[in-house]
């Protein structure tokens, strides 16, 4: 399948690129520099230096491709990008796999694809865009990743210690995060693409939901782990980001397993951080 991929030089997108190539798909990626284009080519993809806000370019690549996978989701990009792709794919069998996020569902101990949408300020912009994507006549799936980790990157690296300086929790650390390894997530994108059905949301979570304190203690490597007040977390991280990280979220990812045949195999977040989050 000829796939138009966005975000191929980013954290999630680079893993999706590797997975798509491994599964035999031909990938064309739009990147912003010659250096990033070279990295895409080294990974087995084709690269075009351009901008995702160029709707003529996006429209052309969508028409030339069998599918689109959008991992470069951003408030400044998504409105026009998603409108252009869904229009190009309207009433066709071509799948469009869009990226959402777990924060969309707010506080919940049992997040599923049917959970109500209750996003924090940080990601409230996603809701109207995702609603239009789901209501379009294109064949769409929105992958909503949990907290992504692995390969030495992702939000959880904020808790990696050096054995000396303190590691600060977000709040008291009692909230749980629902998680997914970046390479397991990439496999789910490929499965969603190959499934090619109108599926609404699919929650990308392995069922591992550690507390923030458990995460920090795994990553501290001897550094003291220190709780802080909500007010202090908001001052340190910014109110919007802190409020998102203070959400208590748990999910099983059951739909992804049952409907897509997804089988996560990578170490848990706590195991990954305890091992130093090695780059495979």
From TrEMBL:
NAD-dependent epimerase/dehydratase domain span: 3-199
Q: Which InterPro entries did the record assign?
A: Epimerase_deHydtase, NAD(P)-bd_dom_sf, NAD(P)-dependent_oxidoreduct
Q: Please name the Pfam families in this protein's record.
A: Epimerase
Q: Which domain of life is it from?
A: Bacteria
Q: Which SUPFAM superfamilies match?
A: NAD(P)-binding Rossmann-fold domains
Name it: Epimerase
Q: Which organism is it from?
A: Curtobacterium oceanosedimentum
């Amino acid at each position: 399948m000829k796939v138009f991929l966005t975000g191929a030089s980013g954290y999630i997108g680079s893993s999706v690129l590797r997975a798509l190539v491994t599964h035999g798909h031909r990938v064309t990626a739009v990147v912003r520099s010659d250096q990033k284009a070279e990295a895409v080519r080294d990974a087995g993809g084709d690269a075009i230096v351009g901008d995702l806000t160029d709707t003529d370019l996006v429209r052309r690549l969508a028409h030339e491709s069998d599918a689109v996978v959008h991992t470069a989701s951003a408030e400044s990009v998504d409105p026009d990008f998603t409108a252009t792709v869904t229009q190009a794919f309207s009433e066709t069998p071509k799948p469009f796999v869009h990226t959402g996020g777990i924060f969309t569902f707010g506080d919940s101990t049992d997040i599923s694809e049917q959970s109500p949408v209750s996003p924090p300020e940080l990601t409230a912009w996603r809701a109207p865009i995702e609603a239009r994507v789901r209501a379009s006549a294109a064949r769409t799936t929105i992958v909503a990743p949990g907290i992504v980790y692995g390969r030495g990157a992702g939000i959880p690296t904020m808790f990696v210690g050096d054995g000396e300086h303190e590691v600060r929790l977000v709040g008291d650390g009692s909230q749980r995060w629902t998680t997914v390894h970046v390479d397991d997530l990439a496999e789910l994108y490929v499965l969603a693409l190959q499934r090619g059905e109108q599926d609404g949301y699919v929650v990308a979570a392995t069922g591992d939901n550690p507390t923030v304190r458990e995460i920090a203690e795994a990553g501290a490597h001897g550094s003291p782990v220190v709780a802080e007040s909500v007010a202090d977390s908001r001052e340190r991280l910014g109110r919007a980001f802190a409020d998102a990280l203070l959400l208590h979220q748990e999910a099983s990812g059951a739909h992804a397993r049952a409907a897509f045949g997804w089988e996560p195999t990578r170490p848990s977040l706590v195991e990954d951080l305890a091992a130093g989050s090695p780059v495979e």
